[in-house]
Specification:
The chain is an alpha/beta fold. It is 28% helix and 16% strand. It has 14 helices and 21 strands. It has a 7-stranded parallel sheet with strand order 17-18-16-15-19-20-21, sandwiched between helices. Strands 1-2-3-6 form a 4-stranded antiparallel sheet, with no helix packed on it. The protein starts with 12 loop residues before the first strand and ends in a 15-residue tail after the last helix. The structure holds calcium ion. Calcium ion (CA) binds next to strand 15 and helix 11. The site of calcium ion has 7 residues, from strand 15 and helix 11.
């Protein structure tokens, strides 16, 4: 057992802005009524760790303020020192999208960051992978069982012959047939599949397994391939040359081995940090997320952008309530309008499902102290750091510019991860307060714990402990530099915990279009 930290012997809380009317309790296990902070504030209720304590006497209807922003309004009188739980705060309206300032706050001028490199796999199109993986794409779920069977054989029998190839992955999904393929929103899953196959970690070697009668024709999956290339890269199971299952397996293995030979000839080379494409997201968030892990990730994101690289942040429902803090940071009004377009699209998507953004916080989020989606969003956007937003991508679009990019995705961990991979992400940084063993097969995932309790309990799942920021043992900047160096190391081949254990979540397509 670790000795208790001296800084935690006494009641400790964190407030973030001089305007805040609430602060969160830091102490592990929470604090009991009667506990008194150093400045004399005494709790009148028991307050769990990460939950909010009223710093002032609030009347019913008064604004509850954290991060200097209004989380909502008090539903009843909240005396100083009381527990401000999720039931004490009424959710406000989301910011209206029609009157927000666009591109009014230029990014702070910062020195370019030079001299940082990683060992990556440079591709013919100029992109750089952090892994050397054979991907087997599928045009339809019907073929998934066959592909899984073949991938198992490749892993067992072929990969040992090609030691420079890191892995083989099936890009399995439930799309491809039984769907309204010409519905406008079908563009989302279709371009996601198109762009997933082009992820830099797959080395530009395309292999698509189709069935033959599906709606998503392989040529639609790869619109830029010539007819000859398509013939060389696509195998359809219904092709009459295959007599029986074993013939199909042999056919796929033959195509796979050609690609393994090419991938195996590749070597890592020293690349500037500007070639990185880093995705950031959070999952299982708590009230510490916006205080410890996310600010440290934001600091690391600023370092990547200063180095000329690319950072994507996402998760529309965790941005929507803080969008008024992001539109001023857009590099141009056009980028600002694109950000508003994605917010409005998602508002309509949720409305069509007869719900709204209040559906976002999970029971675990609330247990961790997050009262509502406003508080979650204010903590979530901190991951974006302080750079200008240089571009906005619709779900599944491929990034074509560098800098800080808003890649619109659902907040769902698996859907966000899949869409960031489609957008070209080659390493992901994932923050968590409640804890998740999340991992991806196609790119390394560095997991950052918001609390030291979690980092200690999950010592072989969490890669970075940002909880030391809350206890005062390290600064946001210090942990930010640790995350930045972990990104360079993971991009160079170091395996984060999820890779060491082989933990892989499924790809999860976002399909907002009808299923037939
Ligand atoms: Ca998420």
């Amino acid at each position: 057992m670790d000795a208790p930290l001296p800084t935690l012997d006494r009641p400790r809380r964190i407030e973030l802005d001089a305007r805040d009317t609430v602060a969160i309790v830091v102490n592990s296990g929470g604090l009991k009524a009667g506990a008194t902070f150093d400045d004399g504030l005494t709790l009148v209720d028991d307050v769990p760790q990460g939950h909010k304590v009223a710093l002032v006497d609030m009347k019913q209807g008064d604004a509850v303020v954290r991060y200097g922003e209004i989380l909502g309004h008090a539903v009843r009188d909240l005396p100083k020192g009381s527990w401000v739980d999720e039931f004490s705060v009424e959710l406000p309206e989301a910011p209206a999208l029609d009157a927000l300032p666009l591109a009014t706050r230029p990014a702070p001028v910062v020195e370019p960051l030079e001299g940082f490199t990683f060992e990556g796999y440079r591709n013919a199109d100029g992109s750089v992978g952090t892994r050397n993986i054979l991907a087997v794409s599928e045009s339809v779920q019907c073929v998934a069982g066959v592909v899984d069977h073949v991938v198992e054989i490749i892993r067992r029998e072929l990969l040992p012959k090609y030691p420079n190839v890191d892995d083989v992955v099936a890009l399995s999904h439930v799309y491809g047939c039984g769907v309204a393929i010409n519905a406008p929103a079908a563009i989302v899953p279709i371009r996601t599949l198109q762009n997933l196959a082009l992820n830099p970690n797959f080395g530009g070697e395309v292999l698509v397994i189709g069935l033959g009668c599906e709606k998503l024709r392989p040529e639609r999956l790869m619109p830029n391939l010539s007819e000859a290339d398509a013939a060389a890269n696509v195998l359809s199971l219904q092709d009459e040359r295959f007599v029986g299952f074993e013939a199909m397996v042999a056919g796929i293995l033959e195509m796979a081995e050609e690609r393994l030979k090419k991938l195996n000839a590749r070597r890592r080379e020293t690349c500037p940090a500007s070639d990185l494409v880093v995705g950031v997201q959070c999952g299982g968030s708590d009230a510490f997320s916006g205080v410890t892990a996310n600010p440290a990730v934001g600091f690391a994101a600023d370092l990547i952008v200063r180095a000329g690289g690319t950072v994507m942040f996402s998760e529309v429902t965790e941005v929507r309530d803080a969008v008024h803090l992001l539109t001023p940071r857009c590099a141009t009004e056009e980028v600002g309008r694109a950000l508003l377009r994605e917010m409005a699209w998602y508002d309509r998507y949720l409305a069509a499902g007869e719900t709204d953004r209040a559906a976002n916080p999970s029971p675990g989020n609330k247990k961790g102290g997050l009262a509502n989606v406003v508080e979650k969003a204010l903590g979530s956007i901190v991951k974006s750091g302080s750079s200008s937003i240089s571009a906005v991508l619709a779900p599944g679009e491929k990034a074509v510019t560098k800098g800080l990019i808003y890649a619109a995705t659902p907040a769902s961990d698996f859907v966000c991860g899949t869409l960031q991979l489609a957008s070209g992400m080659t390493v992901q940084v994932f923050t968590t307060g409640r804890g998740t063993p999340y991992g991806l097969a196609a790119a390394p995932v560095i997991k950052v714990a918001t609390r030291s309790d979690l980092a200690r309990r999950w010592h072989d799942l969490m890669d970075v402990d940002a909880g030391v920021i809350a206890t005062g043992e390290a600064s946001v900047e210090e942990v930010g530099w640790i995350i930045f160096r972990e990104i360079l190391a993971a991009a160079s081949g170091k395996k984060p915990w999820s890779d060491r254990w082989g933990l892989r979540n499924s790809l999860a397509l976002f399909n907002p279009a009808p299923v037939t």
